[in-house]
Write a structure and sequence with these properties.
Length: 337
């Protein structure tokens, strides 16, 4: 969730590269209660600090000030674990209700001025979070400065789970999902390409040569991994045929491992523009194998979305088409509508 001055940055996986500043946006939720709610829901000062884009000492200071004001202890900190006291659990319920009411009030007030406002909980899978979302968010917040964005990052399975648990309102994921209760629609084309060190001996591999390599893969549950496995299976390449398969938890980890000479791996084209320009990685073709996919928007089945969710869905569909046609375009100009 964003801090009061609406500054945020995005980095690999659960911490995310971007800086946007939307000052002057009133937030009705008490800031200390917001910090408390983040710690209570995460049961971690460290994770709450990342979520709020604060330092951990700042979070600790806010919690101590709140405990001093109330004259009660909200958390037990024993053995390196954080848990809620009975009073803390009671306060969490009220803090969540207050956050909901504050969001509703912001939306109602904005509606009187024909503006969107309120909180929008986004769940975003890793590759989109790092390489696509920053441009989309920058433009969306320029057009909708009163919207408060809360971002949750993880692999595709994790984002779908958050969506089904109503912890996020809309998901941006890296492919289809098999879960019932979720409907998806494509919003951007992507291609996963095989990357190697720049001194790799060839620009093309046969499927047998590919199988004789050390393959670097995303972890189980990743949409990228599922797409690669499906493409290899269709091409008749078994995962068991590889010399070795190493699982890594992010695209950045795969790129670093390839640069270090640990193997080769499939990553999104969106993820390697800088490395290709610097010539620290190169793309190698594989005979008979192309790994294409669509990034998708995921929503709970049911009534059509309204308010901020509907607005972000339409915005993402329109801006993604522009971004796909010109990947280096900064989408900070006027709307395409």
């Amino acid at each position: 969730m964003f801090a009061a001055n609406r500054q945020f940055r995005l980095a690999p996986y659960r911490e995310w590269p971007l800086s946007v500043d939307n000052r002057g946006v009133a937030q009705l939720e008490n800031f200390r209660l917001k910090v408390f709610r983040a710690v209570a829901e995460q049961l971690s000062f460290h994770k709450a600090a990342k979520q709020l884009f604060l330092t951990q000492p700042a979070v600790t200071l806010q919690i101590k000030a709140l405990e001093d004001e109330l004259g009660i202890r909200l958390f037990d900190r024993a053995g390196g674990h954080v848990s809620l006291t009975r009073q803390g659990a009671l306060l969490l319920g009220y803090a969540q209700k207050l956050a909901t009411l504050a969001s509703e009030a912001e939306q109602e007030l904005a509606a009187t001025q024909d503006q969107l406002a309120g909180n929008l909980e986004l769940g975003v899978s890793t590759t989109i979070a790092q390489y696509v979302l920053p441009r989309l968010i920058a433009a969306f917040l320029v057009e909708n400065p009163r919207v408060q964005l809360s971002l949750h990052s993880g692999n595709t399975e994790e984002i779908v789970r958050l969506l089904l648990q109503d912890k996020v309102s809309i998901g941006l994921i890296e492919g289809p999902t098999r879960e019932q209760g979720v409907r998806i629609e494509s919003f951007m084309r992507d291609e996963l390409v095989l990357i190697t060190r720049p001194d790799f001996e060839s620009d093309r591999l046969s499927r047998d040569q590919l199988g004789a390599s050390n393959l670097l893969m995303r972890e189980h549950g990743s949409g990228s991994r599922r797409v690669v496995e499906d493409a290899l299976e269709k091409a008749g390449v078994s995962m068991k045929s590889f010399k070795n398969v190493m699982d890594l938890d992010s695209t950045e980890a795969i790129k670093s491992a390839v640069e270090a000479g640990l193997g080769i791996g499939f990553v999104s084209r969106w993820a390697i523009s800088k490395e290709l320009e610097l010539r620290v990685l190169k793309v190698v073709q594989v005979d008979g194998i192309q790994v294409g996919r669509h990034f998708t928007l995921a929503l709970r089945t049911g009534p059509e979305p309204q308010g901020t969710v509907a607005a972000f869905r339409i915005f993402a569909l329109e801006r993604a088409r522009l971004l796909s046609s010109s990947p280096k375009t900064l989408l900070s100009g006027s709307s395409s509508r």
